[in-house]
Amino acid sequence: MTAPFSFTLKATDGAARRGEIVTPHGRVQTPAFMPVGTQATVKGLAPGEVRSTGAEIVLGNTYHLMLRPGAERIAALGGLHGFMQWPLPILTDSGGFQVMSLSALRRLEEHGVTFRSHLDGAMVELTPERAVEIQMLLGADIAMQLDECLKLPANREEIARAMQLSLRWAERSKRAFESAERGGRALFGIVQGGDDIGLRGESAKALTVMDFHGYAIGGLAVGEPQKVMLTIVEETVPLLPHDRPRYLMGVGTPHDLLEAVARGIDMFDCVLPTRNGRHGTAFTRHGAINLANARHASDARPLDEQSAHPATRTYSRAYLHHLTKANEMLGAVLLSTINLAYYQELMAGMREAVEAGRFGDFRDETMAGWDRGDISVL
Amino acid sequence: MTAPFSFTLKATDGAARRGEIVTPHGRVQTPAFMPVGTQATVKGLAPGEVRSTGAEIVLGNTYHLMLRPGAERIAALGGLHGFMQWPLPILTDSGGFQVMSLSALRRLEEHGVTFRSHLDGAMVELTPERAVEIQMLLGADIAMQLDECLKLPANREEIARAMQLSLRWAERSKRAFESAERGGRALFGIVQGGDDIGLRGESAKALTVMDFHGYAIGGLAVGEPQKVMLTIVEETVPLLPHDRPRYLMGVGTPHDLLEAVARGIDMFDCVLPTRNGRHGTAFTRHGAINLANARHASDARPLDEQSAHPATRTYSRAYLHHLTKANEMLGAVLLSTINLAYYQELMAGMREAVEAGRFGDFRDETMAGWDRGDISVL
Q: Nearest-CA residue of chain A relative to B298?
């Protein structure tokens, strides 16, 4: 599998899209959800288990990996694919988001951002060029431009400044990417502009002119209400080229995914299924279930006897409750697996629904299942 | 597989033995190592992964499970086999050891022991009869008598008193077991007597008269030097019936296993492979390897390319080092798996060696491998 990056739109239903991404490490059916493998591991899960959930692509974090174990080291060890033994596609973020959220003593300049590592306090510089270089060293199938992420709320002037800087960094990222050994890999631009529709439009239009392989919408899911996020998505998507994948970064809940696909998004990543799994929450067809709740203590039923994944249909709620209460590692492992499997089931359901021209019905049925909740037979 | 418990000795080589245990949930080849599943889970590993290491039996902890989630609850949920989805044999300890090591405010009487739960402070009573009842509720294939475990060093008088009490509890355990719904299950007696050979002999002889399905040597690996432990084993084993399995509780390092099998032990359990795995130590043919050590940071070699287990021959030392340094859950999961697989490989090697009448050579070769160490090609 050494085909260069491509994207094919296979079907649409309203704004919702069904597509296929081809990468040097294989194909990804869209809409797609990418499990987050921050430090070269989806937390707690071996690659085979991640695959078992139906995932076709995972996300790696430039920021974390450049600091530990280092991009050059990973390159020498076979790239991120070889290092973590994940043979399928990988997308890496550019580090922009984590520089803003995790590091201290940032100095933001036109040239790039200098920050103090949260691990050892070393001063590290990240420029658009270095971010691309790192992602090529990691061997990402899809790399992201370096951008400046703001926390919302922020004032319009500040949002505009960050968006403009991100555009100039997009240009430099693209130039760096084009002079690198690309090997069929892709680079995505990132639309910024906070919660300001005008600025978002300006960003989307300028990036479209630059002609990226795909387009992300960044700087959302950073504290704003879902309605604001969906409005931004709804207004931004039509400004992006129809023939390129659209990636909503860091989103979200199952409901977010449903609503964003309805508005034309093709790709997602989020820590929710794994992070919340580690804290005892299961995402299911019946909605979110808090397994720490005592009502599950004697419940012999699995979370979903109809699930295609063995973990979801095998272990009793009572056992998952026990593991959660006892703070057992296996609880985190199983609930992460169960949640990723549900996310993938949801994505597969959306893909089928778009193909069948019944996305609206699927959305209604899925939400009705969540609303009906976890009806107990006890 | 609903055959009643039995033990068949298949071969011997010096004092070392090769046998087979039959239980209602299947067969166990001996010498056998039992991974520890304290709270109804081998920490971090799904049952299929435990099985992948070659384990044929796991251990569950009466003390932990009676307190959480409760023996009656587990019974209602299909017993421990159904609860944790482990279909193969299970041995449960009686709780005696954990009462001494984990609980506070113990009151030890002839009748039993009353203690304060380390979880919620509730006062709980454990008697020989209740310990058997709990283990039958859990559905253990092999149950253990309640005993009193002392920490060493202790004075002879105290050791003698605890040993005598354990003998009286053995009698009561046996009576309780015989009036229970046994379903082909087994009950083992536990030899006590600390580091006093005379008391050990007294205990072994009295238990032999009581006619248990198997015999454990308890109260070792509690702080005494390896030489003391092995001397006790060497002196005790000949006093136990030849046609019953012998189980050395809570032992040990790979070297302990080798030396104890050489002295006629058939069964072991120990937290070392999983606990030390969680802390970054791998047990291998090359000895113990501390993966936190910086020398592994760029080492692309797997821990053992000749291992039968994919985890051992697939992931690079550099990756395991990275996961360990980054405190990633997957590091604990993989090293636990790798260590259990090595323990099982060691047991399988010992079984083959006894069958082939070359146990002495196998012991020498194995120890030479450990001594040669982890030769770096870098």
A: A73
